[in-house]
Amino acid sequence: MKRTIINPVIKDTVTFLQTAASSGGRITELEMTLQPGGGNPLHHHSYPEKFTAFDGALGLRVGKKERKVLQPGESLFVAPGALHAFFNPTDHEIRFGIEVEPASERLENFLRVMYGLASDGLTDQNSKPKSFEHAAVVLCMGDVHVPGLLAVIRPLLQFTANRAKAKGEEQRLIAKYCV
Fold first, then answer.
1. In terms of domains, do 134 and 164 share one?
2. What pLDDT, in 10s, does the model give residues 106-131?
3. 12 with 84, same domain?
4. How far apart are CA 176 and CA 109, in angstroms?
């Protein structure tokens, strides 16, 4: 299994320092690089995350309005269910860490599948899956809940993800990108 994955669309990388498998389910520990202007949308999930800036300033949005910028060596804990997003507020690549305790194999698979889809040209220019079925599978796989329109259609996403799982699509994606 690859230790470092690259998203060729947005040029970000994820290095798995510790995984659910390597830590006996104790911790998922990632190191990420993020390009200028990069980041993810406001979201929440059922697991906590600890963000630590390594090289460069890491921007974090917590809740709908609060913004923080972590300097190298600074960390921020985000509780389960808290809306949050990370972003690069600089004009150069940054490097930061994410820790999830206990480990989340589903988060690890979510990242591997998302980056794999991007590598195979199956995402748009913003690295979002072109296929609604793939989007549903990965969002549900990663326990990612996004406010707004996606929150309204969450039941449809869950239904689509369950149908895809029953057809073996989730397992096919995991077999292709995670094993």
1. yes
2. 999 999 999 999 999 999 998 999 99
3. yes
4. 11
Quote the domain boundaries for residue 171.
105-177
CATH of the domain at 71: 2.60.120.10
Please give the backbone phi and psi of residue 152, each rounded to the nearest 5 degrees, phi first: -65, -40
Tokens of 90: 């600089």
> Among positive and negative, which fits the CA dihedral 70, 72, 76, 82?
positive
> How far is the first Cα of the chain from the last one, in angstroms, to the nearest whole number?
6
- Indicate whether 52 and 121 sit together in one domain: no
pLDDT tens digits, residue range 24-57?
Answer: 999 999 999 999 999 998 999 999 999 999 999 9
Per the CB < 8 A criterion, the answer to whether 177 and 112 are in contact is yes
Enter the tokens of residue 157: 């996403």
Hey, which bits of 63-169 come out as E strands?
66-70, 75-78, 84-87, 94-100
